[in-house]
């Protein structure tokens, strides 16, 4: 369990704090901190504020992910999924939603619009080299491990 300080912003002060809806949930539900209802037209995208800012500990990130029910029932998802909140970011957590559905999707103040997963981050030290170890896959790119007859050797 990691402790994450959370600041409620004025336009989200009356909304419930993000929380895990079940004991086994991986994500905290994020809510829309909008003043007026929003109609997200088919094919449209919007940056939806949540009314919170975080102070993530060094070595952690927060991932903004879609809610599966919104995706299944309405075709609404997080456009840059998963969105990343870095540990040194102190601004408002917002969600880029897109409507892939056939009908406009209404968002009301306080609606659960996405989920937030707190996760550890590993930093890598990259070392330039002229040679990489050989593998069975090699440089086979997209589709190279898929069905027989699929594209082979596509660049990643």
TrEMBL record:
EC number(s) stated in the UniProt entry for this protein: 3.6.1.23
Gly residues biased stretches: 138-156
Entry-linked CDD domains: trimeric_dUTPase
Keyword Hydrolase: yes
Family statement drawn from the similarity comment of this UniProt entry: Belongs to the dUTPase family.
Described purpose of this protein according to its UniProt entry: This enzyme is involved in nucleotide metabolism: it produces dUMP, the immediate precursor of thymidine nucleotides and it decreases the intracellular concentration of dUTP so that uracil cannot be incorporated into DNA.
Name of the protein described by the UniProt record: Deoxyuridine 5'-triphosphate nucleotidohydrolase
Organism, as annotated: Bosea thiooxidans
Gene: dut
